[in-house]
Design brief:
Blueprint: H1 2-17, E1 27-30, E2 33-36, E3 54-59, E4 62-66, H2 72-85, E5 90-94, H3 100-103, H4 106-110, E6 116-119, H5 120-141, E7 155-157, E8 160-165, E9 168-173, E10 185-188, E11 193-201, H6 214-225, E12 231-236, H7 242-265, H8 270-276, H9 288-306
Parallel strand pairs: 4-5, 5-6, 6-7, 11-12
Antiparallel strand pairs: 1-2, 2-3, 3-4, 8-9, 9-10, 10-11
Length: 308
């Protein structure tokens, strides 16, 4: 126990001493609700690995943070931005899934004894893949990864969890496997604001991963939109509305699943699908050339398995 305390103190001092010349600029999306909009390209040294969105909500009794970012450096910069906005302390951190850009900054907040919430499947994947994610991150960020270490969520949820802070209600909800097996959204019913995590991509092409499920993603998307959000903070891209979220995310998934179903019914091969499905109507999305063919490959593989 004594050794654990010493380690925690050493990490706290190390995290606090990480030099941060990174200035994050939160965007107010609604009264007391802020988003930090990450780069819509790939993780890089230049963008500090921050290619997804973070957020925080200020209440009269404290602050709820949505996503800790990809490193201690980013997490500390986020905390600095919060301090410039309010004197209220951070009371909760929520990780929307298990991808490195959402949770590898956890150690900074863990050292401050702040509880961190995630889905139980996200927690499982973090434990299985966290060391690999951290190693990959260090290869990209080099010195900017200094002080970053694995810190798992302290509280895991299954379907739904509610946090009430300063009269503000935060509903942390899972709609099942989607982009990953542990996706959650943060729904604020009083303000009609949805932090959708990776259920929604805007402006950039989504990535269909082996960790997720494209059919489940469509269903989860529909369930999230049924909440009736007026403002959506997506996992990637600028804050938006249901119309754009549908166009940039749902329509893309449904289009490809429909096209692949037709090809499977004709006995077409994976290579046929990758080469012949015309996705050009979505070329306006960033990363189209990088991801479009990969996405067809993954969805085709999923749908072949669904048939059995």
């Amino acid at each position: 126990m004594f050794q654990k305390i010493i380690f925690a103190l050493c990490f706290f001092w190390s995290a606090q001493s990480v030099a941060v010349d990174l200035l994050l600029k939160p965007v107010q999306v609604a009264p007391n609700i802020y988003a930090v909009i990450g780069d819509i390209g790939s993780q890089s040294y230049e963008n500090d690995g921050l290619n997804s969105n973070l957020g925080f909500v200020v209440t009269p009794e404290g602050v709820v943070v949505i996503n800790s970012g990809p490193s201690v450096r980013v997490a500390k910069a986020l905390h600095e931005a919060i301090r410039k906005t309010t004197s209220q302390p951070v009371k909760w951190v929520i990780n929307v899934n298990s991808q490195s850009h959402y949770w590898l900054g956890n150690g900074y907040f863990q050292a401050l004894n702040i509880p961190i919430v995630a889905h139980q499947e996200a927690g499982r994947i973090m434990r299985e893949m966290g060391e690999m994610q951290l190693s990959s991150l260090k290869g990209v960020l080099k010195d900017k990864a200094a002080g970053t270490h694995i810190a798992y969520p302290s509280e895991l949820i299954r379907d739904k969890h509610e946090i009430k802070l300063g009269g503000v209600i935060f509903q942390v909800i899972s709609f099942g496997s989607a982009h990953t097996a542990g996706d959650i959204v943060v729904w604020m019913p009083q303000q009609k604001v949805l932090f959708s995590g990776d259920l929604v991509f805007t402006e950039r092409l989504l990535a269909v991963l082996p960790l997720g499920n494209s059919d489940g993603w469509v269903k989860a998307f529909d369930s999230a939109m049924a909440l009736g959000p007026k403002i959506i903070v997506p996992g990637h891209g600028k804050p938006s509305n249901v119309l754009q979220a549908t166009r940039d995310t749902r329509d893309y998934l449904v289009y490809n699943r429909t096209a692949i179903k037709k090809m499977l019914d004709k006995g077409a091969s994976l290579q046929d699908a990758v080469e012949k499905i015309d996705q050009s109507r979505f070329r306006y999305l960033v990363n189209f050339d990088l991801l479009s063919r990969r996405n067809v490959n993954q969805i085709f593989t999923e749908m072949e398995q669904e048939a059995f």
